[in-house]
Design brief:
Largest sheet: 5 strands, antiparallel
Structural class: alpha+beta
Radius of gyration: 18 Å
Helix content: 40-55%
């Protein structure tokens, strides 16, 4: 699966929930998910009951679309979660939540994860004072994520903060005085995951 360059609203309608792939537009009446309560496509055919495999696959695809990861990346996260201690599903979702592009979005520095990914790749973000341009970088507890002190970087973040309508999650904190920065107070837990997901279905699928 490559990057999605076409219409993304159909992905939300296919999965039956908002994936917030268009940032603040998803919170407005312009959101296609709200206007159309039907699956994508002009001709609406009666769908057959999904198979057990189809339910497992749809859950996995939903998470991949939400976090913007490819199949190989997802498999890497799964392998790492499988080797770790504790519940594999919770560990997998924690790893995805720790991605730098996701952290940037959830702090409020970018309106969507795709915008956050672009900010990171263009060098607008530092972690603990060092520039990081890898969106998949995994943050750790105590890390400080800050915007670069330059006009273009600050303009992007201030614009996103002005339009932000979501609260900062409990495992993060944000400071807007001076140069905006965020801090990872602790690693994300199962309750901090921002998408309703049945991780056990994904684990069953990937374990086959």
């Amino acid at each position: 699966m490559g990057r999605i360059t076409g219409p993304v609203c159909r992905l939300c309608r296919r999965d039956g929930l908002k994936l917030f792939l268009k940032g603040t537009r998803c919170d407005t009446p312009k959101c296609a998910f709200e206007r159309r309560a039907t699956p994508p496509g002009m001709v609406q055919k009666r769908r057959s009951k999904p198979t057990e495999y189809g339910l497992h696959l749809r859950e996995k695809q939903k998470v991949k679309h939400y976090y913007g990861v490819l199949e190989r990346q997802f498999r890497t996260y799964f392998s790492r979660a499988e080797r770790g201690k504790g519940n594999t599903g919770e560990t997998l979702m924690s790893l995805l939540e720790r991605r730098l592009d996701n952290i940037i979005h959830r702090i409020g520095f970018a309106s969507s994860r795709s915008a956050a990914r672009q900010m990171v790749m263009h060098g607008h973000i530092t972690v603990n004072g060092r520039r990081v341009d890898v969106p998949s970088y995994l943050v750790k507890a105590g890390d400080v994520v800050r915007v670069k002190n330059r006009a273009k970087s600050l303009k992007l973040v201030h614009a996103a903060l002005a339009d932000s309508r979501r609260d900062v999650p409990d495992f993060l904190s944000r400071t807007e005085t001076g140069i905006p920065e965020g801090r990872v107070d602790r690693l994300p837990a199962a309750d901090d995951v921002s998408i309703p997901v049945q991780a056990n279905l994904i684990i069953e699928l990937c374990s086959k």
